[in-house]
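User: Sequence in, structure out. Go.
Assistant: Echoing your sequence, followed by the structure tokens.
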Amino acid sequence: MGASAPLRQLAESHSLKSLILWGPAGTGKTTMARLVAEAAGLHFVTLSAVSSGVKDVREVIELSRQRLAEHGARTCLFIDEVHRFNKSQQDLLLPVTESGEVVLIGATTENPYFEVNAALLSRTTLWRLKPHTRESLTLLVERGLAARGATIDGDALDVLVQSAEGDGRGVLTTLDVALVLASSHENVVTLADVGAARDGRIIHQSQDSHYDQVSAFIKSIRGSDPDAALFWLVTLLEAGESARFIARRLVILASEDIGIADGNALLTAESAARAVEFVGLPEARLTLAHATIRLALSPKSNSVTSALSAVTAAIRAGASTEVPAHLRDGHYRGASDLGHGVGYAYPHDFPGNWVEQRYLPDGIAGGFFEPSAQPGESRLVENWRSIQEGIQGPPVE
């Protein structure tokens, strides 16, 4: 909502149309709706989709029409958790959003493409709000402290911001409680105050110990020790580590240290990352523990990492990247005159859907990928080789 922000410009120019604010909890959807309505000079009315029904919506629409007819004032109807309205409730909003009698601002934490009627979605613009950054959360905390004439210890600020998971409302709620506790010691918020406000134990971490614990977590999974991996996971979570950060590390590890030795590893890690976004903490601890144990028990292989490093080194050392003529795009007029696409053998026209053909640039010998001896990876490689030799390979799981 800065001076040059598009949404503010639309509001102040009285060009505001109905819109949907989509973002995680605590990203300021309600606050933004109020600011937009104020900037546009609209009468602000709010409903919660959790507790409101068709009758409530009809009453608001009728009062909005009366206000417009008698005073020439349009109404901004803010509906929190609009995705909870059923189809009939959402359909009630279609005529007034179409006519512009009411400016609808719907707030949702769910993907509106799945949860909001297509007819309503087509009559609104979609604005996506992202979780607060560390910097913006720090600014919120600093403003809250200044308003109360208080200060905060550096380690307490780090944990408060880090544990908020991008939730601005959450960080301010925790700060409010911590400030009450800090009033007994000269309004200086300590790590203990933040821990008590979060109703949980906070393990003090220096910057070095934080990275050491992350390193121990990753190395324990790589080393196939589920007990140690789970221990370090919980250590990180109890210290306020971001669930998103841990989920990202699991996704990276699934490709870096497991790869094709277990094709389900990446799916497990990716599903965990999605679940973290869907359920949030504290329930996401279960999901992270599930993924951590699963990845620790998976067979390990760094063949993907090694192959990627080998190819990267070759290209950076000056290996030719010229595409062979038969692999070039041959769909446009005149391509064949240049030899582009000429001689390309379509693999599906051959037995086993494979034909011997050069795919690398001239002068590049290959040999970048070196498979491990892990059974899952070996089955894939054996099947690949058997197809090239015209022999039926073992089933690939």
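User: And one key feature?
Assistant: The beta strands are 19-22, 43-48, 75-80, 102-108, 125-128, 151-152, 188-189.
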